Amino acid sequence: MEIRDLDLLYLEDAVSLAQENYEMECKHVGGLPDLNYMVYFRTKLEKLFKSGNGKMAFENNNLVAYLAFGDIFNINEQGDKGATSPLFGYGIRSENRAVTIGKLFQYVAKELCEKYAQSLRINIYAHDIEVLQTYIMSSFSMDVTDVIRDVTEPFELNKCQDYIFKELNKEELKFYRSDIMEFYRGSINHLRMSPVFYHCRYFLPLEDRFDDFLSDDMRIFAAFDGNKLIGMIDSEPGRDAFITGGKGTVCMGDVFLNPDYRGRGIASQMLKYANDKLKECGIKTICVTHGTINPTARGFWDKYFQNYSYTMTRQIDSNMLGIIQPI
Ligand SMILES: CC(C)(COP(=O)(O)OP(=O)(O)OC[C@H]1O[C@@H](n2cnc3c(N)ncnc32)[C@H](O)[C@@H]1OP(=O)(O)O)[C@@H](O)C(=O)NCCC(=O)NCCS
């Protein structure tokens, strides 16, 4: 196998590899849209290849794999640097996916570290097991997962006869403002506590979130015990054009249930209610991005959705950046 720099001459071959990789994941995840993303991949890969942070692998002069990262950026005010490889940032057509990605990463990481990129972030298809294992063994750790659900998939649930589910309009949202903000505070506090320990600094001040809840894009589905609001789940359009950004897809965001009501299947009923309402409006798939570190999120979302990607991170020792001199 020969490793070379990214080369726009091979852009079309790389686009085909990206589409092949996506179709491989589709075989495992029924909810993924059965779409050809080659136009999207072409535009995005051209940009990545121009940034020059990546490598290509060749066998008999044919492109068999590539791995590309975006531009190197500052990750904090101290000027520490990082780089991210998106989900379409790799493609492999090879019997031995582990060896191929391992070799590509070795060459790409060398260059990234020479450019002082310390914090590396990669996205991998969830069922690309050999690649996933290679990164885990290369000291990458899981951070985030993307999950998806076809809204026509049945839910197998016991009916919660005693509870009412409904979508809240903007007036009702304002009326229940303090309950909704308490739910949101509860979600954030859940993330701050053990075993997650997210600081959540980017979600502060909490009050600012209420304006998002009022935006036209956001829909809030709620559970009531009589007149008492006991839980909510929200949805909004995805932002990325790949998978989550299509017209027939929305992303679910916050879910919260009053602690006194947990463990009786109410949140599941609320999710089913949201799923069915979204289906009525022509939505085909719903997605969620959640932290893999959060056991409640794993337990709840992964019960009803299928994982299709993992984001993994690795911090390189800050003393080992730049050109490493032999000792
Ligand atoms: C997550 C939450 C909405 C679940 O509400 P709920 O009504 O108790 O959930 P359900 O009874 O419908 O549970 C459905 C499934 O979710 C999973 N689940 C629920 N609570 C869980 C927990 N604490 N840990 C792990 N999995 C859990 C289980 O798979 C459960 O299925 P099971 O009962 O067959 O085991 C509620 O616990 C909550 O508000 N938590 C705080 C906020 C939060 O964690 N949000 C999700 C993370 S973003």
TrEMBL record:
- Spell out the coiled coil positions from the record: none
Q: Which InterPro entries match?
A: Acyl_CoA_acyltransferase, GNAT_dom
**GO terms, molecular function:** acyltransferase activity, transferring groups other than amino-acyl groups
Source taxon at top rank:
Bacteria
Q: Where is the N-acetyltransferase domain?
A: 163-317
Pfam families associated with the record: Acetyltransf_1 (PF00583)
**What is the protein name for this chain?**
GNAT family N-acetyltransferase
> Which species does the entry assign this protein to?
Oceanirhabdus seepicola
